[in-house]
């Protein structure tokens, strides 16, 4: 068994979309602060975390993009949706700021030698993190799905898909349309994945990415992992 960590490190003031809360991580108590109980000295270290529910590697809950009554919050989504069969498609040849077309997905599926099946998680390797992380372009320059290519994925009956960038579609209307495809076709997506290059050409594997049980949450950070036999 091999486990591949697909999650970004969550750190103080990490990159995020400007319409999301800044991530603030700071010591709350340290080992310099001593406590004494019944003559016994003890110290403990605790960190304070202040961040949104879409921080780091995360999954969107349906209620994030679906304003209709009854849309599920993250604590209401079945756990089996986050422990699935999975495939990874190689789209690393796509230029920054480019659209991912249906033809791109079809070619990538064929070259991977896999078939996308119902309830799969589909991971899209765009080599974006390596090319753009640490630059101003990290929140603007990612390749993205279109309404049409997201609809193609939804037509496969997938559970969800995942990307390296901070959004599934290119900034602006295209990104809103991709979110609405997820709403209308009943699947969701993850953002902020890493290490997808390690899954290219590896065939089918298991995906694990459980969210935190945030009551009413519109999304959640996840520890995304690929499990290969």
User: How much β-strand is present in the residues?
Assistant: 25-35%
Order of helices and strands: EEEEEEHEEHEHEHEHEEEE
Kindly report the name of the CATH homologous superfamily: Putative cyclase
| Structural Rg | 19 Å
Tally of structural domains? 1
State the strand order across the main sheet: 1-15-13-7-9-11-12-6-14
Which class do the helix and strand fractions yield?
A: alpha/beta
Q: How many angstroms does the end-to-end distance come to?
A: 4 Å
Q: Estimate the mean pLDDT confidence.
A: 97
Total beta-strand segments: 15
Question: In the CATH scheme, what's the topology name?
Answer: Glucose Oxidase, domain 1
Helices, by number, come to: 5
Task: Provide keyphrases for this structure.
single chain, 229 residues, alpha/beta, Glucose Oxidase, domain 1, globular
Care to give the gist of this entry?
The protein is of the alpha/beta class. It has helices spanning 62-65, 102-112, 128-132, 147-155, 173-185, and strands at 2-5, 24-29, 35-37, 40-42, 46-50, 58-60, 83-90, 99-100, 121-125, 144-145, 160-162, 188-191, 205-208, 219-221, 225-228.
């Amino acid at each position: 068994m091999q486990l591949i960590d697909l999650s970004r490190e969550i750190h103080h003031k990490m990159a995020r979309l400007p319409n999301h809360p800044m991530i603030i991580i700071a010591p709350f108590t340290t080992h310099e602060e001593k406590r004494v109980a019944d003559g016994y000295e003890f110290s403990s270290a605790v960190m304070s975390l202040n961040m949104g529910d879409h921080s780091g590697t995360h999954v969107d809950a349906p209620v994030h993009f679906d304003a209709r009554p009854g849309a599920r919050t993250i604590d209401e989504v079945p756990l089996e949706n986050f422990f699935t069969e999975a495939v990874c498609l190689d789209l690393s040849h796509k230029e920054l700021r480019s659209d991912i077309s249906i033809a791109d997905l079809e070619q990538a599926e064929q070259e991977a030698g896999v078939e996308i099946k119902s309830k799969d998680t589909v991971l899209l390797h765009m080599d974006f993190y390596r090319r753009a992380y640490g630059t101003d372009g990290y929140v603007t320059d990612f390749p993205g799905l279109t309404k049409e290519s997201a609809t193609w994925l939804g037509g496969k009956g997938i559970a969800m898909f995942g990307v390296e960038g901070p959004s599934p579609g290119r900034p602006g209307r295209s990104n809103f349309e991709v979110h609405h495809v997820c709403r209308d076709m009943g699947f969701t997506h993850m953002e902020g994945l890493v290490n997808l290059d390690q899954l290219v050409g590896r065939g089918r594997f298991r995906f694990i990415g459980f969210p935190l049980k945030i009551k009413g949450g519109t999304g959640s950070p996840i520890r995304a992992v690929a499990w290969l036999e």
